[in-house]
Structures are given as C-alpha cells and as structure tokens.
Design goal:
40% of the residues lie in helices and 11% in strands. By secondary structure, the chain is α/β, with parallel strands linked by helices. α8 links the parallel β3 (130-137) and β4. Residues 334-346 have low confidence and may be disordered.
Length: 346
C-alpha cells in the first residue's frame, strides 16, 4: 500500500462513526473522491496534514461520553460527595435551536446512572447549581441566546451556572462571558457562570498568530480567491504571521499552510458557484469575519458550518449547480428536524 492509501484508510477510520445510521460508513474510496477535488500537486501534503488534524479534532460519541463521565466525579465541580451534588443540580433544557442539548443530556444521564446510580430526571432542587450542556461552542451566540432570557425571566436571585461543552473556541467564550455579565448586572441578580470543556481552541483576533483555527498567512493567487478578497467587507481578512513552532492541532507550520491554502481555494470556488451567497458564507466556514471561522472541530453528530465549506458543503448526487461539490462530512439534511443550522452559532 502507498502512503496515500494508508492516509485515506486512516481518515476513513477516524470518521467512521460520523452520522452513523444516517449515512453509509465512510470508506477510503469516499475520502479519495473528496480529495480529488483539491489541487492535484497538493493532494498528498494536504491529506497528510488533514489526517494529523482530524485525529485530534473529531469527537466521537465515546470521546464526549468519557469527558462527561470524568466530570461526574470531578472534585472541583462536584466536591467530595458527587451523588449529593448531582441530585440537587438543576439540568437546563432550554436550547432554542437544534438537538445537541437533548443529545448531551441523554449522554450525561447515562454517566450519572453509571457513576452515582442517579436518575437525571429526578435531580434538581432549590439552591442547587444549574447545568447547561451543549456539544461545542463556536461564536458563543447559541449559549448566549439560550441563557440570556433564562437569566432575565427564570433564574433565581442567586445561582451558579455551569456551562459544559466538549470543546470551545476562546473568542466565543470571551464574547458570551462579556454578554452574560452585562445581562446579569442589568438583572441585579447574583449569578456566577463557569465553563468546563475537554478542549479549548484559541481563535481571538488579538492572538491570531498563535491561533488553533485555520487562519491563512496569505491569499493564494487563484482567480476565485482574489475575486472573493476584492468583495467589500466590514471585517476584512487580516493575515496571520507564520509561526516558528507547530501549534495544536497542526503538525507543522508548513503542513498548516497547505491546509489553509487548499481549503481557502476550494471554499472560494464553492462560494463562486452560489448565485446569491449570504455574507456569512465564507470559504473557511460561516462567520462575520475575514475568510471564515476556520474551525476543524467535528462531532459524530454533525459537521458545523463554522468548518471550511469544502468539508461539508454539497450534494453527492449533484452533477452541476451550487451543490456540485462532493462532501467529506455531509451535513444533516437541509429540511430535517436537526437542520443545516443546528450548529449555526453566529
């Protein structure tokens, strides 16, 4: 087997549980079909880096469950008597969009039963902490949109809220923290919000040179990219300075640049196929800024639209038009209950 074959098999194996039951299990052939859409000379270096990154950024159901299980008995959260702590904890089920909170509650419920023999439905009492669960925080808007009305209308005069997510982006947690502090001050309530995560990704503009998201150092000299860069923008692209050392989740600066460049080219081409793309539809993922959000975090449930368009955009059956791109991680159907905006956190 060639290096390419080994890498294709490794990527297929890493993402094999993606939307299990909804989609066919990914094969090396599926990954190869997707890969063939990128610049021919760059396909192997791109695949090398992609395989390295996706191994750290793809959250399986087991990864999420292991993290939640560790929190059940985490002394900093649950103290010396986890059973007493969790039986008084109030689990919030207030998500306005999407199904991720329900899924996380289901997983947490199983962990609580295993570790403390508690039934989550019977937990909760006055004076207990409040628990807000979600899978991943991107811009922080979903957490803010859910907790803001709850703080104003339903929260008691004083409380502690624990926001628990498998992964968060530092820009999102910074913005949501600022937003919630302002709401709490206005409400004149005493509410403390704490954040728990298995993985934190740096993506604040101030720290772009040490960011852990796709943040290109330059715009490739490709027609579609240059046309995109020429569009008027409220928040234009600001390039990142190359780093001497590798920054997680990337293997090296050189590998990272191949990933950034190829995803930017492919995303600009996808966007150019759309007749009236939304402003927020950017090559490296939905976002109001620069060339896109640039997240590489994917869960077994869905691929967020804050990831590069080339990872999830398109319809495998399309032969022309805006959806004529073969997706690696096809997002859940545009009109299903858990629709395309399930992870849209703008």
């Amino acid at each position: 087997m060639s290096e390419r074959d080994d890498l294709l098999a490794s990527v297929a194996n890493e993402i094999r549980t993606y939307r299990k039951g909804d989609l066919p299990e990914p094969t090396p052939e599926h990954v190869d079909r997707w890969l063939h859409q990128f610049t021919p000379a760059q396909q192997l270096p791109f695949l090398r880096e992609f395989e390295h990154v996706i191994k750290q950024t793809f959250f399986t159901r087991k990864n999420v469950k292991d993290f939640l299980r560790s929190l059940v008995t985490n002394q900093k959260l649950a103290g010396d008597d986890p059973s007493a702590y969790w039986s008084s904890a109030n689990f919030l089920n207030i998500q306005q969009n999407g199904q991720s909170q329900k899924e996380m509650l289901k997983l947490f419920s199983k962990c609580l039963a295993d570790e403390c023999s508690l039934d989550l439905d019977n937990c909760g009492e006055a004076g207990g902490d409040f628990i807000y669960l979600d899978d991943v925080m991107f811009s922080g808007n979903r957490v803010g949109n859910d907790l803001e009305p709850w703080i104003v209308n339903d929260a008691p005069q004083s409380a502690t809220v624990h926001v628990i997510v498998a992964a968060l982006h530092s820009g999102g947690s910074y913005l949501v923290d600022k937003r919630l502090k302002a709401v709490i001050a206005q409400s004149r309530k005493k509410i403390a919000v704490k954040y728990w995560r298995a993985l934190e990704i740096e993506n604040r503009k101030l720290y772009k040179n040490s960011s852990g998201v796709l943040w290109p150092t330059a715009a490739p000299n490709v027609a579609e990219v240059q046309a995109y860069m020429a569009l008027p923008a409220k928040f234009p692209f600001e390039p990142r300075q190359p780093s001497a050392a590798a920054i997680q989740p990337f293997s090296s600066e050189a590998g990272r640049q191949v990933l950034e460049s190829e995803f930017l080219i492919a995303g600009a081409k996808i966007r150019a196929m759309s007749e009236n793309p939304k402003q927020s539809m950017r090559p490296l993922g939905f976002s109001p800024f620069g060339v896109g959000f640039g997240s590489m975090i994917v869960t077994y449930r869905n691929c967020p639209n804050n990831c590069p368009l080339a990872m999830w955009w398109g319809d495998p059956e399309a032969t022309s038009g805006a959806l004529h791109w073969y997706p690696l991680l096809q997002r859940e159907g545009y009109s299903s209950a858990r629709n395309i905006f399930d992870d849209l956190t703008l």
